[in-house]
Amino acid sequence: MLDVLYQALLAPFIDFGFMRRALVGCLALSSSATPVGVFLMLRRMSLTGDAVAHAILPGAALGYMVAGLSLGAMTLGGLMAGWIVALLAGGLARITVLKEDANLAVFYLLSLALGVLLVSTQNRNIDLLHLLFGSVLALNNEALVLLAAIATLTLILLAVFLRPLILECLDPGFLKRHSRLGTLTHLVFLALVVLNLVAGFQALGTLMAVGIMILPATAARFWARQLDQLLVVAVGLAVLGSWSGLLLSWHWDLPTGPAIILMLGCLHLISLFLGRDGLLKRWIHPAKHLTS
User: Fold this and answer.
1) SS3 (DSSP) at 206
2) How many other CB atoms are there within 10 angstroms of residue 161's CB atom?
3) Over the stretch 110-145, which tens digit does the pLDDT of each residue have?
């Protein structure tokens, strides 16, 4: 029995280096992208992450066209494209009648169209598509260093801007009126969103990187009510989903990125029904839920 469990749950990571690198990369993403996703959820900006993820595509494609499969070029291109879209959307929201979500929708659609156009013009687009739409099993040491650096920077900036971020979640207008940190906090947060989505596309692709950011955060909301608990539970769920997704991909020969996102989705559904604030509790104790 123990040997069966070992072969099913641990052997792929112990016996194969590429599985270990994939797991380490997912752990780095879980520790950085998921906390950012928690704040996206609390600020009701979950779809912003999806929009910015699509906006990264043309920058990564341009990096590939200039330097081929260069980690640095594709990362720099993705960062520039994502930050340009985020800054344009935020800046135009302050000087036009359109809100930030409408501006994001406009620029994300234009970026996505441009990215698809650039990708389709490449004769050698097979490897590029693997990078853009998921290649977690192909992570090398250089990519792991990049993911670790982004995770470290993200955690440091979240710690520094924790109080302003919480205030902005509760009342953005109050922070803007009573502190000069309002605009800076918003820009730093958007930069972290872009940075972690660029990190995510190295492993999960631009179209699925937002999954490890949002799905654990929304699932954790059914288990925790305080911010510190929410962050811990979200990271734990991200790690569990990544580990189980890698195993699902290994044992059933499935695409790894989609397998990870599907397992995170399964954890969300389990949380939806069985969580502390899930549907099962509502059905069993409706009156108690209304008074809690």
Assistant:
1) coil
2) 18
3) 887 887 787 777 665 555 566 566 678 888 899 999
